[in-house]
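Worked example 3 (structure in, sequence out).
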């Protein structure tokens, strides 16, 4: 298996029980998670040497996040300790026509204020095969954006494949700021993952598909995929295609382009959704694993990624706690949910 590095912010998610609203809750569950940390956990579950890089406070609350990563087999050797706080976010799970809601409390977190000297990126990347990051990390602060740039440069010096999940978050930065930061970073990227909103707000590309109206026809994406590959030289351009009928019922599929051909995955009807937080991260991890396992066979990789992320929607918490065998079973057509005895 491969050695894979991810860099980002792991936070503590505070959530009411079930589908309770914030204002009716006397207490919250503590659930560690965050974009690249979720990817790291999935990859560890698939058997990879999965190494997560971040900075966390050197106190017990920071240790909650470290312990959660270690519990799932993630290598935490390159986590820097220091700073004043760990980021928090509050997540209320929606139901039917009521959407889920996220409120961030992550300003001035340890990783947002980290400095280049907190990490030896050449040592971190040495001997590794793959580096993954998301657009959330440069969005949290200018210092974090600089860390991403330095990590990407080191990854390229050491010959790693680099993937990005564009992951635009309007509560963290504007589209104008995102484009100014993200477009220069694309020179380091081999595999670009993002939905139609991400491509528009992070890179300035607008697909022809009207996803808000429920149009997820892959043909609406083909032009933008070609433009993105031509401009940035990506090896693969990938998008998830979500049909959101309600907070608890979605259609789910994906599209990939390698410069020669497009491939559209099978579609899953996810009903009911238990927890969609981390769904995109589980897709990214599944794609990385698939591209490595199937030697660049984009169709096989995409089917693994879509099946993995469909399963994540059935699991509480940020982490996708499934094995490779469970993903392969679903990808192979076992969707009946019968008890396994």
């Amino acid at each position: 298996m491969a050695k894979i590095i991810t860099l980002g912010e792991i936070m503590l998610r505070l959530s009411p029980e079930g589908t309770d609203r914030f204002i009716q809750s006397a207490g919250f569950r503590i659930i560690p998670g965050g974009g690249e940390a979720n990817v790291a956990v999935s990859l560890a579950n698939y058997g990879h040497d999965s190494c997560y890089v971040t900075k966390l406070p050197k106190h017990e609350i920071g240790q909650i996040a470290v312990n959660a990563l270690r519990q799932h087999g993630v290598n935490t050797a390159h986590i820097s300790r220091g700073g004043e706080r760990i980021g928090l976010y509050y997540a209320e799970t929606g139901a039917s026509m009521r959407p889920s809601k996220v409120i961030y409390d992550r300003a001035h977190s340890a990783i947002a204020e980290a400095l280049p000297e907190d990490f030896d990126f050449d040592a971190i990347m040495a001997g590794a095969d793959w580096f993954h990051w998301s657009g959330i990390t440069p969005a949290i602060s200018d210092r974090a954006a600089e860390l991403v740039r330095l990590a990407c440069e080191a990854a390229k010096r050491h010959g790693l494949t680099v993937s990005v999940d564009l992951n635009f978050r309007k509560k963290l930065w504007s589209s104008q700021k995102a484009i100014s930061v993200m477009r220069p970073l694309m020179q380091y990227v081999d595999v670009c993952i993002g939905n139609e909103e991400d491509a528009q707000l992070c890179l300035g590309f607008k697909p022809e598909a009207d996803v808000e109206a429920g149009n997820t026809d892959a043909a609406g994406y083909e032009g933008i995929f070609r433009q993105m590959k031509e401009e940035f030289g990506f090896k693969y351009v990938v998008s998830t295609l979500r049909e959101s009928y309600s907070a608890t019922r979605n259609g789910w599929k994906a599209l990939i382009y390698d410069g020669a051909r497009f491939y559209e995955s099978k579609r899953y009807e996810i009903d009911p959704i238990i927890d969609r937080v981390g769904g995109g991260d589980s897709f990214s991890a599944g794609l990385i694993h698939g591209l490595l396992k199937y030697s660049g066979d984009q169709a096989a990789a995409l089917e693994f990624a879509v099946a993995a992320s469909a399963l994540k929607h059935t699991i509480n918490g940020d982490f996708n706690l499934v094995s490779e065998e469970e993903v392969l079973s679903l990808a192979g057509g076992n969707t009946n949910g019968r008890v396994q005895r």
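Notes: The mean pLDDT is 94. DSSP finds eleven helices and 15 strands in the chain.
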